[in-house]
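Entry 14. Two folds queued back to back today. First construct below, sequence then structure tokens.
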Amino acid sequence: MALFVASQTATGFTNRLAAQVRALPEQGSDPAVDVRFVNARGWPTRHPMLTPRRDLSELERVRIAQAIADIPGMGGVHWTDGTMLAGSDTNIELLRCENDLLTVMAGRTIRFEESSADFIPGSEEVLDELAAAMRPCVGAIVAISGHTDTSGSPQVNLALSQDRAQMVRRELVDRGIPAQNLRATGYGSSRPVRGLDPADPANRRIEFRVVATEKTRPTPIDTPAAR
């Protein structure tokens, strides 16, 4: 009887964890991984098993697994290939870099004049803080994505979002961030914020994400001379 009651309680608990996993932005409308909260004996467990649904980079694996592990009450996160949540020091550092960028943008936005790629006064301060957060991220490749709501034609929205993303990239380069480490892409209104009406003006935004790392190449000063 005790085992039955415990199993029912555990099932409710793991169902709540599963619901929180489904709500993660890292999963989105097309989840990157399947997540199971059942162990090899069929018992509910708070230690999820992750199975990729497509090829994932090491950084994507770390990002997704870390987001799941950060849910309160979650146990150890495992992958079906036998590995647990773990990442190289480089990947962990890049995730920290991404979190720093998200912290700068928390509750704030880079604002533009209506139907324009010109900044509204005040955006320069946000750009200064973003550049400061990026400088320690040696080798990080940062994707800058521009988004709009559905007002206007899709073609105009796509072009406008691209112009705005490129403008942000240009401003960050002017602030000392290497151009080769910044990727600017406009998506128009094709990627609304989850849970928002696509026509909501809050979909007009610039987002940042660390997508890869570039290996540091030694300079002639770093390279030992022949002897």
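Second construct, same run, same settings:
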Amino acid sequence: MDAAARATLIHTRLKSVYPDPKPALVHRNAYELLVATVLAAQCTDARVNTVTPEFFRRWPDPAALSRAAVAEVEAVVHATGFFRQKAKNLVAAANILVARHGGAVPASMAALTALPGVARKTANIVLSNALGINEGIAVDTHVRRLAFRMGLTTSENPVIIEKDLMPLFARNDYGEINHLLVLFGRDVCKARSPRCHSCILDDICPKIGV
């Protein structure tokens, strides 16, 4: 079975398990999802969701965040780890949003990845989930692990993995593919002890590296 055929089956089967996949990060708009996704780097979504209510109470939009003292932001996001860099990047990004984009989150990959602390993964998540734009497939730790195990890529480089995955799925499904793989990676195809014996993909998965 080639990668394209396997990808189609993976999508169909995972969709049967997770019929309505959605991001775990709680957000109400593109700004909130951008902040939450930046904070989620090297941190669990669940922990980020405990931090963001206070964050958005203090800084409800880019204009408010652009005026914040970095030290105050550090104190609020401390629990997410790497808090100094995250706080610095978020305040700097807010200043750019105000100065260049009228205080709004831009709807383009180029503009988003020009923001401090925002790489393609974060930009893809914001574009697909908050702005309805499927530019690419967000490759986080789960997607990276599953794509390699399932023989959809031979690389461990997120940029190359994304390029390998995109031709295998319909553009309209890019955002959904990320959610499905993340959910399945958390529930079944875990990093250290994948549950292959009870996996709905067992018969088509090459189990590379397992």
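Quick look at the second one. The chain has a mean pLDDT of 97. The chain has two domains: 3-22+137-198, 30-130.
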